[in-house]
Amino acid sequence: MTTDEQKSLLTIALFAAFADGSKGQREREEIRRVADALGGGELNFAALYQDVLLKRTTLAAEAAKLGSPELRQLAFELAVGVCDADGLRNDAETRFLAELGRALGLSQPAMAEPAATADALVTMPLEPAPQSGAIVAPAPSAADAELDRTIVNDAILAGALELLPQSIASLAVIALQMKMVYRIGKAYGYEPDRGHVKDFLATAGAGLTGQYLEEIGRKLIGGLFGTAAGRMAGSLARGATGVAFSFATTYALGHVAKRYYAGGRAMDAQMLKDAFAALAGQAKSLQQQYAPQIEQQARSIDAARIVQMVRSR
Fold it and tell me: Domain ends where: 59, 92, 121?
């Protein structure tokens, strides 16, 4: 994949981010933050962001720069993920994806399959799937430690998903985080719905669309897209920054959620942001401790069963 092709993929993803025509100020700020974070080097994401915002390029022009069928398919899958990251796509996003599919010359099956997988991730119940056998609730004294283990395990899985070349894996990270926050809220006697969980993530500083853009941007910059599934040699080194991001974001969200629900949801927006930023910084160092487990888990993930795996959490 050439640098120009990487730029076109990111540009198409940014077009998707603005496709719904109703981006609020908070989400625009989140996307701009991502652009600033990924704005260095050959892939100047900040410059691409300006090109899209100021209409210096077109969807058709960027699609024409993608020469291979594999890259055109990847561009569509990334766009589906961006449109679905903050919830099931609306009519404007559906029209955008149809236009993109035509510009990329894709068949209907090539468009339908990734859309169906993305839909399954963003609409799955936050409640874990029922499991056979009796479930014994932990004693109150063990509940806090159990939540801590859950947060670490989910953070490890998020880091492992970040190592996979499949674009849908990045969307699975978001679904995983939402289910984790739901479980933590329920452990403290709340029953947060999907809208509340989305608002919690966005308020803390992990907006869904912005987070997905950052994850796929890091995969492109790290060269992980295009790596054959299952070939992990070198992936951990190339994806180290992205793994640290996904691990840290998940870990920080889990512990902020613990504080928030344990305190009766009394933390205001600034307190949530400050706590999330501090914990994410700590978790980036902690991630090194779990690097072997992250790589081992990445090797064991069946990419064809990502939806089922997240549903069972």
Answer: 121
Is the CB of residue 280 less than 8 Å from the CB of residue 249?
yes
* 173 and 53 assigned to the same domain: no
Nearest alpha-carbon partner for 187 in 130, 224, 138, 234: 138
Structural domain that includes position 200: 124-129+136-311
**C-alpha atoms less than 13 angstroms from C-alpha of 309 in its C-beta half-sphere:** 20
- Distance from first CA to last CA of the chain, Å, rounded? 35
Task: Note down pLDDT in tens along the chain; length 313 residues.
Answer: 788 999 999 999 999 999 987 666 777 788 888 888 888 777 888 999 999 999 999 999 999 999 899 999 999 999 999 999 888 888 999 999 999 999 999 999 999 999 999 999 989 889 875 554 444 444 444 578 889 999 999 999 999 998 888 888 889 999 999 999 999 999 999 989 999 999 999 999 888 888 999 888 888 887 777 654 444 444 444 455 678 889 999 999 999 999 999 999 999 999 999 999 999 988 988 888 999 999 999 889 988 899 999 988 8
Distance in angstroms (rounded) separating the CA atoms of residues 223 and 220:
5
Six-digit token string for 126: 């936050």
- If one counts the domains in the chain, the total is 2
